[in-house]
């Protein structure tokens, strides 16, 4: 099972105000995945928000692309200890997608094509902190990096920024996702080095 693409090179350390403890800065974009890369056609892609009551809010690719688009310029941090600064994305803010969703949920479980899931507190997806991104560095997001669309939550370790995202289920209680069930930290704050359960 290949978890990481070898051959990328980083510079140890970096700006301590932007590179969290235990991380090094890289200018590459390493590919980390488990299993085959899903190939998702935008003609059949949908994004669905399902509330704790079962209410569904769904967008096709064309409907999603017609929503207001934002251009987050953010630093990203992988649990495998690389950080890449000043990344540029285009996508839809989660605030836009959740604007008309009635919920009292405290948590969300992201679902992806290929079966991957990851859990997040709902408050970490709102107030301009998270996006569903379809473009990276001016180009459509490549499948190996989660295209056609991935979740971007830059203030958490990058496994929380689920690739090939297809929806969110809003939940009253926390429900660990794929890596969390395998022993990764439930929250994943890079500044607190929350890599694994117990950190």
TrEMBL record:
Region (Disordered): 1-23
SUPFAM superfamilies registered for this protein in UniProt: Oxidoreductase molybdopterin-binding domain (SSF56524)
Oxidoreductase molybdopterin-binding domain location: 35-179
Gene3D superfamilies attached to this UniProt entry: Oxidoreductase, molybdopterin-binding domain (3.90.420.10)
Listed PANTHER family: OXIDOREDUCTASE MOLYBDOPTERIN-BINDING DOMAIN-CONTAINING PROTEIN, PROTEIN-METHIONINE-SULFOXIDE REDUCTASE
Descriptive protein name: DMSO/TMAO reductase YedYZ molybdopterin-dependent catalytic subunit
The organism of origin for this protein: Nocardiopsis metallicus
